[in-house]
Amino acid sequence: MKSFEQIKSLENRYHMNVYGRQPVAFVRGEGATLWDSDGKQYLDFLAGIAVMNVGHSHPKVVEAIREQAGLLTHVSNLFYTEPQADLAQRLHDLLGWGKVFFSNSGAEANECALKLARRWARAHGSPDRSGVVVALGSFHGRTFTTLAATGQPHKHEPFAPLPAWFKYISLNDEEALDQAVGDDTTAVLLEVVQGEGGVRLATPEFLTAARKFCDERGAALIVDEVQTGLGRTGKWFAFQHYDVAPDIVTLAKALGAGLPIGACIAREEVADAFKPGDHATTFGGGPVPCAAALAVLDIIESEDLVARAAAAGERLTDVLLQATAGNPAVNEVRGLGLLIAVELAGEWAAEIVGKALERGLIVNNVAPNAVRLAPPLIVTDEQIARAVEILADILVGYGGAS
Ligand code: PLP
User: Fold this and answer.
1) Distance (Å) from CA 338 to ligand 1 centroid
2) Residue 222: which of 181, 259, 190, 184 has the closest Cα?
3) Which of 39, 123, 139, 267 is deepest in the core (most CB within 10 A)?
4) Are the beta carbons of 28 and 38 closer than 8 angstroms?
5) How far is CA 311 from the centre of its chain?
6) Whose CA is nearest to atom 1 of ligand 1?
7) CA atoms within 13 A of residue 106's CA, in its CB half-sphere
8) How many CA atoms lie within 13 A of 236 on its CB side?
9) What domains can be seen in the chain, in order of their start residue?
10) What is the pLDDT of residues 330-382, one digit of tens each?
């Protein structure tokens, strides 16, 4: 096996320089634990950025992948396969509505949602509609269109010009939303909790207004649940914390337990706007990622992980608050379920994440002043206690508290 330095030098020479990587190469995972190339053990409080909801190398996922890989890995979407049909039904049943298109990633799931919303607008007699309203601070992907949908202007600049049909409003600004949604609007695209934007929650009033304006003005409401979906926030879908139902939901991250799969799920009347040939993918919904996803859904159900995420999220928040009480380095602990940010009084997040890594805890600097925690939903109370002990101890060095 190669040493970390060997892996790093290969990467530096042969991989494009786009990732600000941490100085560690992982080789194995189990549950909420990872091991690096030197055999050092880590507590994973990031879960591959909200991907490994069922934990690393869950035996049922491993078995499903192994079994499906031995049977059939790819035939293209020119043919039917049972895992894809079964998974579409399962997602429909989870939501209680909808038809599904499978992609390979979150960005592609959003791309599908945006194409579908425009097709639907045309199908119901609004040929001139093209606008999409999004929130500042959002993250929807890295393709040209989903980058344009991402409400972070500094990410746009290196690639301008981008598709120009997006309007950006502040999250939770109902008045701005009212102004922005018009007769030319195809869709409002929102995250219920902005993950990459620093774990920022939409207010119930804002989401209710989004639903109302979409209904009044004939636009589709798309909720991006790529990061929040499948139990992460203590409900199957984050929008279920609110009294609002979208027309289209997108999923990815946790669905395949690390295998590339995304899903765009739309209400039947919206979904039926797509006609054969309107949209397609070579790999999307392949038998192996679908088999993994079916195992993921089974595990979330059989191990009651949605309820566990709610309880563990509360516990993690409480313990964090207790352990950092009186430390002026911490401004706020916010989140929903097991998607949590510790907001700091200064821009120390990168440094704190580095120190945590040295001490065997994986967290992430989601913003210069915010540390994100998103452990697997199977995380134990003991692991929560250990993670908080490490983090609180590091934070003492920043707030001067004892
Ligand atoms: N949407 C949200 C809310 C995300 O958090 C992400 C990724 O972080 C994406 C979309 C893009 O997903 P992917 O990286 O799989 O394309």
Assistant:
1) 17
2) 190
3) 139
4) no
5) 20
6) 140
7) 26
8) 15
9) 4-54+304-395 (3.90.1150.10), 60-302 (3.40.640.10)
10) 999 999 999 999 999 999 999 999 999 999 999 999 999 999 999 999 999 99
User: Is 145 a pocket residue for ligand 1 (Cβ < 6 Å)?
Assistant: no
What's the gap in Å between 110 CA and the centre of ligand 1?
Answer: 9
User: What's the CA-to-centroid distance between 250 and ligand 1, angstroms?
Assistant: 10
For residue 370, give the 3-state DSSP assignment. strand
Q: Is the pTM of this model over 0.85?
A: yes
User: Tokens 């994440």 label which residue?
Assistant: 353
Cα(159)–Cα(114) distance, integer angstroms:
20
pLDDT, position 400 = 67
| Ligand 1 proximity of 372 Cβ (cutoff 6 Å) | no
Q: In whole angstroms, what is the distance from residue 278 CA to residue 271 CA?
A: 11
Pairing of strands 193-194, 185-190: unpaired
The count of other CB atoms within 10 Å of the CB of residue 37 is 18
For ligand 1, whether the C-beta of 135 sits within 6 Å is no
The verdict on the CB of residue 309 being under 6 Å from ligand 1 is no
> HSE-up of 43 (CA within 13 Å, CB side)?
23
Distance 224 CA to ligand 1 centre (A): 9
Tokens 């639907």, residue located: 120
Check pocket membership of 196 for ligand 1, CB cut-off 6 A.
yes
